[in-house]
Amino acid sequence: MTPDQRKAAVAAYKERKSPAGIFAVTCAATGARWIGYAPDLDKIQNRLWFTLRQGGHRRGGLQAAWAAHGEGSFSLEVIETFDDEALAYVRDRVFAERQAHWCAVHGAEAI
After folding, report:
1. What kind and span of H or E run contains 83?
2. DSSP of 75-110, one letter per residue?
3. Are the C-beta atoms of 110 and 34 separated by less than 8 Å?
4. Dihedral-angle region of residue 18 (phi above 0 means left; psi in -120 to 50 means alpha; beta otherwise)
5. Would the pTM of this model clear 0.90, i.e. be above it?
6. Distance between CA 49 and CA 55 in Å, rounded?
7. Which of 3, 5, 29, 111 stands 20 to 30 A from 98 (CA)?
8. 25: how many CB neighbours lie within 10 A of its CB?
């Protein structure tokens, strides 16, 4: 890869748009679900799994289920995505409202 190609690749990566939205973490062993939101859905699983592997997730129930059943029992599913431009001014409010909605629908705990 030439230096110019590398610069172009780095610039393209920085300019990419990743979707924001609502996600669900499910424990297959118990059927328990946790609902969360993220401004960057492409990176949330890596960040969440890292925190759980380290034993430092702030939701005790999720951390306890992870410790009891292991990483293999967990999956992450994107439930809803949002257009970034539509969220520019009201993102936090929309995230909170939609998270509450999906928690009620799934009988899940918020992350």
Report:
1. none
2. EEEEEEEE-HHHHTTTHHHHHHHHHHHHHHHHT-EE
3. yes
4. beta
5. no
6. 10
7. 29
8. 25
**How far is CA 102 from its chain centroid?**
14
Residue 33's DSSP bridge partners are 26
pLDDT (tens digit, 9 = 90+) per residue, 19-43?
889 999 999 999 999 999 998 898 9
Asked if 97 contacts 110 with a C-beta cutoff of 8 angstroms, the reply is no
Interhelix angle 41-54/60-69, rounded to 10 degrees, is 70
Radius of gyration of the chain (CA): 17
Within 10 A of 103 (CB to CB), how many other CB atoms are there?
A: 19
**Among 79, 69, 106, which residue's Cα sits nearest to residue 21?**
79
Give the closest residue to 38 by CA, choosing from 111, 107, 103: 111
- Please count the residues of the chain: 111
pLDDT digits (tens, 9 = 90+) for 38-51: 988 989 999 999 99
